[in-house]
Structures are given as C-alpha cells and as structure tokens.
Amino acid sequence: MASIINLSDAVSIGIHSMVIVAKSENPVNAIQLSEMLHKSKHHIAKVMQRLVKVGYLDSFRGPTGGFTIIVDPAKIYLYDIYTAIEGEVHVKECKGEGELCPLDKCIYNNLAKKLTAEFVDYFKSQTIKDYM
C-alpha cells in the first residue's frame, strides 16, 4: 500500500528510543530497546550513536551501561531528532512547475509543499517531554 508520508525506520527508532530513554531512571541499552521496539539491536545502536554524537544522549559501556538523556526533554523537538538522522527538510515546489508543465493551473495545487510545511511545523511543535 502506498503512503504519502513515509518516515524512515531510523527516524522512528530515534524518536521512540529518545522517549523511552527520557522516561527511564536508569540507562537503557540497545538490547532493551530492541526488545521494546522489535527492531535490530545493530540498527538501534547505529541510530543511538548518531544521537550521542549530536549531544542529546550519553552512552556507557559495560553490564550496567546504556544510553541516558543529557538534554532537557522539553528542549528536544521531534524535528531535532529528524534532522539529526535525515538532515534538514527542504520544502520544494511542484516538479511540474516551469517549462515542463503545459497547464495554466497546477493539478496538485502545491499540495506537496503544503504537506511538507505542515509536517515540519508539527515536528517543530512537539517535544520529547510531550510523550513522557
């Protein structure tokens, strides 16, 4: 089945893992996240290391190790996580505009641009704390 909006597994893992880690009083490791999210521990570890690299999480090795949040969850927006994993979202005009489109009126009415802008606005309005 086709879908208009498709978030990558990495973004989904990043957002869900950040909420789980933020809610936990103890470090949460990749194996625990893997069991909760039903995703590969290797994929989770890769995503989580990216979030460590940008400064949202800290990680500890060893039997009591795992990930802990080091930024106030109220200051981490879903868009921050999205961009840490996928990069900035670029709102684009209709591909048919310009010389390629022979019509006087856009069939899509710039729907892709509107949906993308709405998606970005929503992700910029939601914080990790909102889901704790």
Low-pLDDT ranges: none
Query: For the largest beta sheet, what order do the strands appear in spatially?
Result: 1-2
Structure annotation, total helices: 5
Distance between the termini: 31 Å
- Structural class estimated from helices and strands: mainly alpha
| Percentage beta strand | 5-15%
CATH superfamily: Winged helix-like DNA-binding domain superfamily/Winged helix DNA-binding domain
User: Can you summarize the main beta sheet?
Assistant: 2 strands, antiparallel
Task: Name a few traits of the molecule.
single chain, 132 residues, mainly alpha, Arc Repressor Mutant, subunit A, two-stranded antiparallel ribbon, 5 helices, elongated
Would you mind describing this structure in some detail?
The chain contains 5 helices and 2 strands. By secondary structure, the chain is mainly alpha-helical. It has a two-stranded antiparallel sheet with strand order 1-2. A hairpin with a 5-residue loop joins strand 1 (57-60) and strand 2 (66-69). The relative contact order is 0.16.
